[in-house]
Amino acid sequence: MTSIAIRIEKEMFKITKDSKKLIVGITGASGIIYGTRILEILKELNIETHLIVSKAAEITLALETEMQLKDLYRLASITYSVDDIGAAVSSGSFQNMGMIIAPCSIKTLSQIAYSINDNLITRAADVTLKERRRLVLMVRETPYNLSHIRSIEAVMENGAIVFPPVPAFYTKPKTVMDIVDQSIGRALDLLGIDTGKVKRWA
Known about the structure:
Blueprint: E1 6-7, E2 21-26, H1 32-44, E3 48-53, H2 55-64, H3 69-74, E4 78-80, E5 98-104, H4 106-113, H5 120-130, E6 134-139, H6 146-157, E7 161-162, H7 176-189
Parallel strand pairs: 2-3, 2-5, 3-4, 5-6, 6-7
Antiparallel strand pairs: 1-4
Helix pairs in contact: 1-7, 4-5, 4-6
Keywords: Flavoprotein, FMN, Prenyltransferase, Transferase
Binding site for dimethylallyl phosphate: 170, 186
EC number: 2.5.1.129
């Protein structure tokens, strides 16, 4: 990856100045299916995605899926190197709907809680908070220890939304993807995005 954002499949995803833009971070916690599925759904909805993948997430991708990194990148509109601290999404002047990190590791959450901006994911998240935009963290960790709880408290005080992908069984899911889509749909609800895949309580 170069320091310049790479645009992928322009013919399939038309980017204009009026496109809705969402920053998507994928970190190394288990559950990379949440990040990949979010990219698939947002592509269907023609929402421009700005993807940042951590080094640990590259390992998780290989462990949990049959995908290669290039396959993951093809799901996004624009991708950035996690080391590219000067990328467009690192600036508050970059207009967007907000940011979702899925899955979000405790390490990443803790760094965001205390503004430790040593990579593009945490920098983009910090900017999202300072610009008062929505930041949704799909935290994958259990059980929590006390330091986790304190970091969660701190990041919520800073304005982030902590959204562990807890399954909803009132929807009577029949497949793993049913569970994943419901969790993703509810998380994206918080960013004002209706995926059309949420079974709502009536």
